[in-house]
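Record Threonine synthase, 308 aa.
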Amino acid sequence: MGEGNTPVVRLGKELYAKVDYMMPTLSFKDRGAVVMIAAAHEKGIRHIIQDSSGNAGCSVAAYCARAGINADIYLGESTPEKKIKMIESFGAKVLKIAGSREDVAAAAIKEASKGEKYYASHVFDPLFVQGMKSYLFEVYHDFEGDLPDNIFVPLGNGTLFFGVHLALQDLLENQIINKSPNIIAIQTANCAPIYNSYILWHAATQKHPKEKVKPRFHSVINRGTIADGIAIASPAKGQQILEIICNYNYSIVAVDDTEILDAHSALSRMGYYVEHTSAANYAGYLKYMSKPDQVTGTSLITLCGATK
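=>
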């Protein structure tokens, strides 16, 4: 449906943004959905179940509509109404589930376990992650055979994070690039399980410098945030994400709602109207780069659009 190859624009002297609101459903999730749903179509699957906090549901619903596949999208009761309307416009059935994001996933998995419908999970389906790798491959071409020095990645369940990480390993292993850029994950302070777990791990390594401290993931309680797209209190692959950040020397930053709102306003004044979850990317960039000990160089953030 025209997914991929979104442009990169300059936001500042050394800051660039990949304009992913030009994707069919306004977010980078389309890169994973097209691969996953195309494979489902080839297998003859006629009905899928998927759970989402919003954007992935929009994307999967759209590609199911294109492929002629029925879709049941499980959402939390706090999902923005504009995203629910978008999903329903594609002909998908929306099922609102009370409770946490994890309760929504549990309800979808329970229904899928009956075996009548395919569980098309953007979190667990490896084909979705393989599709997400194309984000970094595109960036490599956008920067004419190179990568920016710093890549900022929004982090909820980790679909883009895994895509960037795995694509980066492919480029390194095949000697297409010879060094890794700095990868900086971004979470919202009111729901930051990976960030909090990382801080605990880092403190332990400072306290016991001669010991090999194993990072341990701890879930949190979602205290509410405008960045709903990355507000995952207990991501299914939280331990794996944490280990990657620690073992590969990636960075992570948490931004609060005030910082996100300020970033949203600043982007709007530049002419870019994005969803608050996307504004968190810019907020994370500003917070990370404001530290005097941080490296400089070119940086990339991602912009996803406000649902129409």
